[in-house]
Amino acid sequence: xxxxxxxxSAQDASKTPASSWRPKxxxxxxxGKTFEMRxxxxxxxxxxxADNLIxxxxxxxxxxxxxxxAPGALKIEADCFDAQxxxxxxxxIMLKRVDDRSFSWRHIxxxxxxxxxxxxxxxxxxxxxxxxxxxRSKAEADQKRASEPTPKP
Length: 153
Hints:
With 153 residues, the chain is of the alpha+beta class. 20% of the residues lie in helices and 41% in strands.
C-alpha cells in the first residue's frame, strides 16, 4: 500500500464544525456486503494527515495543499503515483462528508471527472493493525538508514 499525506492534525468529525471538517485518519473501505472483508485486507483507502499521505492499494498521493471548499468538504491538491502505470500525475481530489464515519471521494484529473465513491471508516481492530504496520515499517526504515554507512566527504 502506498501512502501520501496531509500536514494537519486528525479531527473527529463529530466534534468539529462542518466548515472545518476533516475525515478521521485511518483505513476506509467501500460499505456494503464485503465491507468487513475489505477492511480485513486493510481497506480500500487510507488517510494519513500526519505524514501528508492519502491513497489506496494501487496508488498513493502526496498532498500539496488542502482547502476547506465548502461546509463538510475538502479540496486536496496532490501528486499521485499509480503503481499500475508507474506514473505520477497531479490530481485534484474532492472529499465530501457523508456522516461521522463516511465520506465521498472524487478524483478530478486533467479535465476528466469521476463520479466518486463512498468510503466508510473501518472498525477499530483494523485501525490498530494499520497503526502497528505503520510503526513497524517506520522502525524498519529507521534501522535500515542507521545501518547504512555514512558517506565520506
